[in-house]
Amino acid sequence: MPHEYVRTKKEVFDYVREKTRACTRETAEQLTANTISKELNISRALASQYLNELVRDGTVIKISSRPVCFLHRKALEDANGVRLSTEPYISWAELEQDLSRGNKGKRDFEKLIGYHGGLSYAVEQCKAAIKYPPAGLPILIAGQDGTGKGYFASLVHEYAQNCDLIAKDTKLCVFDCAEYENAQQISVALFGQAAGQNRKEKDGYLQCADRNVLYISDTQLMGLEAQDKLAQLLDSGSYKTADEREEVRYSTVRLILSTDVEPEKHLSKKLLRRLPVLIHMPSLSERPAEEREQLILHFFCQQAERVGRDIYISNRVFELLLQYEFPANIEQLKNCIQTSCANALVQSNDQTKDVSVYLYHLPEYLMAMARVGNEFSEEQRSMINVRSFVKDAMTETINQYYESILDEFDQYRVQQYEQGALLQKLTKCFNAYSDYLVFSKRFANAKIDVIERVMENVFHLLTDKYYLQLPGHFHYVFSRCLYLQMRSAQFDQDERVAQCLALLVRIFPKEAILTEEICRIIEQSLDISVNGMSQLLFMLGLQQYSRNVRLDTIRGIIICHGYSTASSIANVVNRLTGSYVFEAIDMPIEGSVQEIATRFKRYINYVPGPKDAILLVDMGSLEDMHVLLDGQTNLNLGIINNVSTRLALDVGCKILQNMPIQEILQTACEEYVTAYKLAESRRKIAAVLFVSEAGVSVARKMAELFNNSLPRPIEVEFIGYDYLRLMHLGGLEELQSKYEILFVSGTANPEQEELTYIPMEDIISFREIERINRMLSRYMKEDELEEFNQRLLKNFSLQNVVQHLTILNVDKILDLVNIGVVQLQRMMHRKFSAQTIIGLNIHICCLIERLVTKTPIETHIDQKDFEQEQKPFIEMVRSAFREISEHYSVEFPISEIAYVYDYIIHDPRASQIGKEQVHEIRNH
Q1: Considering the domain 2-95 in this protein, what is its CATH number?
Q2: CA–CA separation, 85 and 101 (whole Å)
Q3: Which residues contact 171 (CB under 8 A, 6 or more apart)?
Q4: Can you give the C-alpha Rg of the chain in angstroms?
Q5: What pLDDT is attached to residue 58?
Q6: What integer pLDDT is reported at residue 374 of this predicted model?
Q7: Sigma-54 factor interaction domain: which residues (predicted)?
Q8: Element holding 395 (H helix, E strand)
Q9: Architecture of 802-922 per CATH?
Q10: Do domains 2-95 and 685-793 have the same CATH topology?
Q11: Rounded to 5 degrees, what are φ and ψ at 627?
């Protein structure tokens, strides 16, 4: 019997070890007592007994989830390079958090402490920069000594290897300016030196690092001349040696620069203007508390691996290391921990397995900071194993607040007390959670800042639209709710959340509408799908401040032609009446009435409440909207034409007075009288036009992005204008009667001789910046122009422009467009200029969005001739961009391909290669 017992227990152990090697959370069912009993043909009770004995032996770990799972300890520790706790784990999330502390299996930025926290935005910037075609964007990392700039650069290099941007066998080229005595030596070492009398030719680091990543540290030590030479390389990809010989050299190196001083004060302006990606590496004291904890434990774990023994530290040591501001940042912290471990190791018993670090093992400068008192005995009673310690108090606290809300709901379901009492308890839980988020100092990173700005705009929109009186910290609280949702998926599938949310929707229908609108805006702005727990929190917060929101017996809708005509009228009336009485639908000039009718139906079906509606329209086919709504049988619709603000205000007041719909229609029309006055303008206004073949909305977004780059408002209007109207329909004469047009920019040349045209790609590449500065110099001072250039450089990166102009995932669409452009060049046996490549990137990204949203450009001036004469080119474009077409399930129409053709024909390089080759391109 004992022999049989040992044999069966070993079978269980071997089974667990084998299955653990390939186990994931999704396949964990095979490591439950129930499955193991079936696989080994033993009873479930016996399997459970053996498994629990193995847990007590320390060879198997237990996860107390539903169902309970058992995994082989050593297999997990070896695979992840981490020591696991001997205590049972509450959930898979807790185990995964422990496993994440190891670096085995992690790639590039995943190894970085702060990857999902304070450095997440920096990581996203670097990923975009290093992948930017054709050879990445240069990166400048600024931060104090010892903040990890070199380590960060090594991770960028590893990321480039993992993305197959550089060869797998390359090493990061490091050029440390501090190793050289003067600027001349730096220049020779970096740029190389041509052969001369009594000296051999010398390749510089730029030559050696060709097709690799070059990290230049302490860039401020380079002379201004060397910095300007580096700027020339970033402009043209070419440079001359340090002795300025005639021979021009080329390098496709990916550059990372770093400095420990303020870049604006110590780097040349010429170089700074060509460094679009600036990473601020925070000091150790600026890092969130969680990241400082992880760094401390990480360095202690490194020492534990080095000495081959477990290391324990006292709570007071941990606390002091957390609180002390290390002047030399992470590097000094690492050295401090290494010294402390060495001191403790010398004093420990050689036979013992553990090394204990106390206050007196710390360096003297740290011991002097420790508070005097009887702490030694406390330290002996409370020690931390650095390999198994997990401290994520924030996650634990957040989960407790979530559980408190769901517990109240559970009690309500069991006890069936009044909804008012439930609401009171849920509100109390929400307010406690809100206070924690407001007063906790653990949130600090660029991602939260971005979310906070979006949420501020969302709630500002709601307060304007529904006249809510929301507290100032509301956006602050809910930006952190969203951030925490992104960090954890623990409650995503909790059935209690769905049930509690369904109950609140019934209790608070108005708040449910507001919440749904918030979620829709957030998804459009941040591409974040708001989960049930966050929606529940939104409703609990909104119900305290939404008592003035009303749903009238008659719905008012204004529809007008134009970009924001209806919105403007509705906004004025809603403000004057102090109630959200009118919804607005703006109809594009080129839009069809059928599309507007579809949007109107969607609105009517979406918003619950009354089925009587008054529609105010401006003119034309909108007056016959009722014909297109014939299938809407549940709606009584009144239509009034020739809408104005005065008419809308009169109708709005009557709706608020609960007058019958028939009486409102009749009296409003009887009382409405028009009049006019003429005031002629005598002074022309300076203006900059933006145009795009993609439509007025894209042109307006470009104008907005340019306007946002100004350091202050100036007396120039930035206008998004209709491209076809400017080209053919007399729009120029209309504009010139009112405006002094400084220049026109955009994605398509309107071909007007009277106008100065600067392509959007020349703004992105900064090719025409001096010309733009001259035109705007009478409106801004020199220092303001400098600030404008810096902002323009930031706002008009290709990544940012595409993100501003489209709703699609920027990284994905740029990757796919780049593949297509490369394929097209290969098919045409041509290499496009950088300006043309940038222009094609913008144009095709907008093109894809138009096709996805089913709003393509359907005509081109010479479309028929083009279709007959350029069939090979049409096939080449469709073939080159097949991958992006299949990804978004679209097909390039002839009209859109014709505009792509226009870009390539106007490529600056086309004029350099002669008329015969241009003709060849036209007839390829």
Answers
A1: 1.10.10.10
A2: 12
A3: none
A4: 33
A5: 84
A6: 42
A7: 112-342
A8: helix 393-415
A9: Orthogonal Bundle (1.10)
A10: no
A11: -65, -40
- Report cis status (omega within 30 of 0) of the bond before 67: yes
Tokens of 604: 């009517």
Taking a C-beta distance cutoff of 8 angstroms, is the pair 477, 401 a contact? no
Q: Which of 66-80, 129-143, 332-346, 635-649 has the lowest mean pLDDT?
A: 66-80
pLDDT computed for residue 656 by the predictor:
86
* pTM score above 0.90: no
User: How far is Cα 280 from Cα 266, in angstroms, rounded to an integer?
Assistant: 16
In terms of C-beta density within 10 A (0-12 exposed, 13-18 middle, 19 or more buried), how is residue 544 classed? middle
User: E strands along 676-776, which residues?
Assistant: 685-692, 717-722, 739-746, 757-759
pLDDT confidence of 258, banded at 50, 70, 90? very high
Burial of 602 (0-12, 13-18, 19+ CB in 10 A): exposed
Report the pLDDT value the prediction gives residue 130, as an integer from 0 to 100: 94
377 pLDDT above the threshold of 80: no
- Residue 524 CB neighbours (<10 A): 11
User: pLDDT tens digits for 177-198?
Assistant: 999 999 999 999 999 888 766 6
The reported pLDDT for the residue numbered 182 is 92
**Which residues on neighbouring strands pair with residue 217, listed in sequence order?**
176
Distance CA 307, CA 345 (A): 9
Alpha-carbon gap, residue 560 to 586, rounded angstroms: 6
Taking the C-alpha atoms of residue 100 and residue 111, their distance in angstroms, rounded to an integer, is: 9
Output the CA angle 463-467-468, nearest 5 degrees. 65
Contacts of 657 (CB under 8 A, 6+ apart): none
User: Helix and strand tally (H, E) in the chain?
Assistant: 44, 20
Query: Rounded mean pLDDT of the chain?
Result: 81
Distance between CA atoms of residues 358 and 344, nearest Å: 8
CA angle, 903 as apex, 866 and 761 as ends, to 5°? 160
Say yes or no to pLDDT of 391 above 70: no
Nearest to 695 by CA among 849, 909, 530, 586: 849
Overall average pLDDT of the 480-485 stretch: 79
Going by the DSSP 8-state scheme, the letter that residue 810 receives in this structure is H
The CATH-assigned architecture of domain 285-391 is Orthogonal Bundle (1.10)
Distance separating alpha carbons of residues 423 and 511, to the nearest angstrom: 14
- Confidence check: pLDDT of 809 > 80: no
Q: Which helix (H) or strand (E) holds 639?
A: strand 636-640
Domain 554-671 sits in CATH 2.60.120.560: no
In degrees and rounded to multiples of 5, residue 614 shows phi and psi of: -115, 125
Q: Which of 91-100, 535-544, 680-689 has the lowest mean pLDDT?
A: 91-100
Residue ranges of the domains in the chain? Answer: 2-95, 108-282, 285-391, 394-542, 554-671, 685-793, 802-922
pLDDT score of 859 more than 80: no
Q: Which residue has the tokens 């073949």?
A: 693
CA 700 to chain CA mean position, Å: 23
Span 612-626, mean pLDDT?
Answer: 79
Cα separation, 901 vs 871, in Å, equals 12
The sign of the CA dihedral 622, 626, 628, 632 is positive
Q: What is the CATH number of domain 685-793?
A: 3.40.50
For residue 878, what pLDDT is reported?
87
Q: Does the domain formed by 108-282 have CATH 2.60.120.260? A: no
Most confidently predicted of 408-417, 701-710, 914-923: 701-710
Determine the pLDDT at residue 633: 53
The torsion angle over the Cα atoms of residues 42, 44, 46 and 52, rounded to 10 degrees, is 130
Q: At 254, which helix (H) or strand (E)?
A: strand 254-259
Question: Which pLDDT belongs to residue 473?
Answer: 73
Q: How far apart are CA 201 and CA 193, in angstroms?
A: 6
